[in-house]
Amino acid sequence: MKLKVRIPVLFVILLLSGMLVCAGGQAEEKLQFDNPDFYDANGKFQEDKAKEAYVALMKYHGYPVYEGIREKLWVTDYGKGEFTKVGLGVFFFINNVENRYMLLDLFLLPNQMLPEHWHVAGEGNPPKMEGWVVRYGLSHIVGVGDPNLGPDVQIPKCHMNGTVTVKHDVAAKPGNLVFQPVIEGKHWQCGGPEGAIVTEVANVHTDSVMLYSDPAINEWWQSTVVK
User: Fold this and answer.
1) What is each CA distance from 171 to 74, 119, 134, 141, in whole angstroms?
2) Residue 188, class by beta-carbon neighbours within 10 Å (0-12 exposed, 13-18 middle, 19+ buried)?
3) pTM (predicted TM-score)
4) Is 27 within the bounds of a domain?
5) Judging by beta carbons within 10 Å of its beta carbon (0-12, 13-18, 19+), is residue 41 exposed, middle or buried?
6) How many CB atoms lie within 10 A of CB 58?
7) Domain at 55, CATH number
8) What is the mean pLDDT of the chain?
């Protein structure tokens, strides 16, 4: 006598789904960060906490966490106190001022905005021209061109009361290469739902000639970063 065991189809589907999630190697939980976690009781920005968040982003996407990368990460909230909305992480591989070439990776948390800015000539260097290759996630790379910014990109209220001046969006996915189309053209980025890790190549980077559309950010940049 053979015993027949009937397993509900729904149970099998759920079981296989769980196995696929485990086999996929990607984090089961979505990336989620709370802004208060990045500030102390006095409202001071905690850079160590920001670095931990970007390392979590790296691990989530399977980006190689190079030895010493955490210590070398440059992180900022642009003086806004809204790191999860406006902020950035940067790892410079090289910025060769003498021969004018540069390579870096930039990191954006989910829906985090790199503020609108542009580059002019200065300190003996020409205006910075750059291109971006998305490695992981999705980044809305926005610059000069016909406005096509969709409702899925929400500009934070803390950035010029929720406004920008350029609205031509390229929703760049892994492998997409996007160039800055105009010398001294304004541009900005915003991470997608799972954030973004983007490689940037350029002729050279100069802090003092990087200008921001948001007057408060520009003042903070000049007084804190450029000094």
Assistant:
1) 25, 22, 10, 6
2) buried
3) 0.87
4) no
5) exposed
6) 23
7) 2.60.120.10
8) 90
Which residue type sits at 123?
Answer: E
pLDDT digit string, tens, across residues 39-94 = 999 999 999 999 999 999 999 999 999 999 999 999 999 999 999 999 999 999 99
Contacts of 160 (CB under 8 A, 6+ apart): 116, 213, 214
Alpha-helical regions (H) of the chain: 9-24, 47-61, 69-72, 215-220
**C-alpha pair distances (Å), 137 with each of 90, 166, 176, 189:** 16, 23, 11, 13
Query: DSSP character for 79?
Result: T
Closest to 86 in 3D by CA, of 63, 56, 116, 127: 116
11 is a domain residue: no
Domain boundaries, position 86: 34-226
113 to each of 46, 85, 116, how far by Cα in Å?
A: 18, 6, 9
CB atoms within 10 A of CB 40: 10
C-alpha to C-alpha distance for 112 and 196, rounded to whole angstroms = 9
Domain count, the chain: 1
Regarding beta strands 187-202 and 113-119, do their DSSP bridges make them parallel or antiparallel, or are they unpaired? antiparallel
Report which residue type is found at 145: G
| Rounded Cα–Cα distance for residues 135 and 60 (Å) | 13
Predicted pLDDT at 227: 86
**Nearest to 139, CA basis, from 164, 165, 105, 163:** 105
Question: What distance lies between CA 127 and its chain's CA centroid?
Answer: 22
Give the integer Cα–Cα distance in Å for 114 and 187: 9
Q: Tell whether 19 is covered by a domain.
A: no
